[in-house]
Each structure stands twice: as structure tokens, then as C-alpha cells.
Write a structure and sequence with these properties.
Blueprint (H helix, E strand, L loop, with lengths): L7 H18 L10 E7 L6 E4 L2 E4 L3 E7 L9 E2 L27 E6 L3 E6 L9 E6 L17 H6 L3 H7 L1 E2 L1
Parallel strand pairs: 1-4, 3-8
Antiparallel strand pairs: 1-2, 3-9, 4-6, 5-7, 7-8
Length: about 170
């Protein structure tokens, strides 16, 4: 055996190089700083409310941060999921979320790992049509949740952008 094989400095350098290589090829978790932002807002009178963008295409593992930009209203970002008292309008097995009430200036971030179509709403403003749709990765461009439309307010159903439009544009305001 050569003396080089036992050189502790060489082993340290080889170990550190291997760690750097792994860090470069392994996926890293999304950080809040890497998040795509969706604004939550409305008119000064509160007569209209919205998410902007209301349709968004992202890649698996990407984060979305909702920010309440409304100066006089609270909003939520809440997944359509039985855990939130709503029909399932997201991929089976994906983790549901509910931001709870966000005061002006507050934000909430979710990382989307499972490909598919995610529909969400604002708890106090669902009946006003404050809904959004996120497409993660590839998805069929047909309406995936038409069978649950009758369980939602008409304004909410009308507010969802078509999946095909999101896939083509990447973003629908």
C-alpha cells in the first residue's frame, strides 16, 4: 500500500469533493426566496376581490407565496380538499393547505411536489369568485374537476382559468 492512500488530507479533500458533487446533483428544497408570488387584493370598496395571477404553471418542487396586498381586507389561500370541507380538486395524495386569515402584508408559502392541477379559494370570498388554479408540471388540458363543479358557487366555477390556457400562457391574470 502506498503512503498516499493513508494521507488524511487527501481523504478530507475527496470527501469534501464528493459532498459538493452530491449537493450539485440532488434536488434542493424550494426556499421562500425562490417562490413565485401570487397577490391577493381587491377594490378599495371590497366589491371585487382576486388572486393575481389566478392561473399559474410551475415545475414540481417549486414554491408559491401568496401575499395579501389588500389594505383593508383579510384573505386566505385554501385548497379544495375534504380536509378543508370542500370537494377534492387537487391531485390525490397531495398535501392540502389552508393559510388561515392573512392580514394586509402577511404571506403564506406552499411547495408543490406532486404534478397535477390544484384549485384553491379564499375562504371569505369564494362566493365572490376569488379562486385560483395552479398547474404543476405536465397535465391534461381538459377540465379535471368538472364532476365537482355543481358543489361550488357559480362565481367560483366561472373564475377558474382553463388548464389549456395556463399550459400555453404559463400565467393567467
Amino acid at each position: 500500500m502506498s503512503a498516499v492512500a493513508y494521507d488524511p488530507r487527501r481523504r478530507l479533500l475527496l470527501g469534501a469533493g464528493g459532498g459538493l458533487l452530491l449537493a450539485a446533483v440532488l434536488p434542493r428544497p424550494a426556499r421562500a426566496a425562490d417562490a413565485v408570488e401570487i397577490g391577493m387584493s381587491g377594490t378599495p370598496t371590497g366589491s371585487e376581490v382576486w388572486f393575481r395571477p389566478r392561473g399559474l404553471l410551475i415545475r414540481p418542487g417549486q414554491a408559491v407565496r401568496w401575499v395579501n396586498r389588500d389594505t383593508g381586507n383579510v384573505h386566505t389561500s385554501t385548497a379544495y380538499h375534504p380536509a378543508n370541507g370542500k370537494p377534492l380538486r387537487m391531485p390525490t395524495g397531495a398535501k392540502p393547505w389552508n393559510s388561515d386569515y392573512l392580514l394586509p402584508g402577511q404571506s403564506y408559502t406552499v411547495v408543490f411536489d406532486t404534478p397535477g392541477v390544484y384549485d384553491y379559494f379564499c375562504l371569505p370570498h369564494e362566493h365572490a369568485g376569488m379562486v385560483g388554479r395552479i398547474v404543476v408540471g405536465d397535465a391534461p388540458d381538459a377540465s379535471p374537476y368538472a364532476d365537482t363543479d355543481a358543489q361550488l358557487p357559480a362565481a367560483a366555477v366561472a373564475g377558474f382559468p382553463e388548464v389549456a390556457v395556463i399550459l400555453k400562457a404559463g400565467r393567467v391574470d
